[in-house]
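Input chain follows. Return structure tokens only.
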Amino acid sequence: MRSETPSQGAVKIRDMQKAALQVSPGRRIKQARGRKTYDALIATGFKLLEHEEFESITIAELAKAAGYSVGAFYARFHSKDEFFDAMIAHHLEHRTRTRDRLLATISNDKLINELIKELVGYYWKRRRFWRAALIRSIRDPDFWEPIRQHGHELANRLIARMSKHAERELTPREEMNVRFAFQIVLGTINNAIINSPGPIFLGQALFIENLARAFRVVSDYDDLVGIGS
């Protein structure tokens, strides 16, 4: 498969985020009522996914639960895939806000534990949504690119913060270790959602504790930011 350049990935993120503003191709939500309907459908989608798998939710069920007609759904989305794209855009916007808040407010000694705790808690709560995203990525690899780029940006931001506190640029090896630590964390969460392999499961406190410890060891985070020195 042809690899994406960072700039191409950024374009795809912007394209997916635009889906959150579109009612159908070439049209945008112009009225407050249209925005309200759109937001209600998205919120209802996440609510239904707390108890059902995405593939089992029908458009009729979704529209009824949101308090709108099937016609109102199709006025905004041409298909369930297009609707799910909008959910992903909502997800990315939420994750960006959360990332920025954590990086701006949490001290170095608490950051990794809080970051992993928040990540695990979020994906545990929205595990059916994320399982649907993982399944979608199998049949549509390009779908995953904005999510991949968002993950890269999280690593970039942490590397920049670590460099600032280390008072030097991280070496290429050190940067790669940080990125691999994120790969371990996100890959472990994804595997737990899809396969639940055990022996420690996603909803357990020990899952968070061990993931945070693994991140610190692989990334050499404590030494690089001067914790304990």
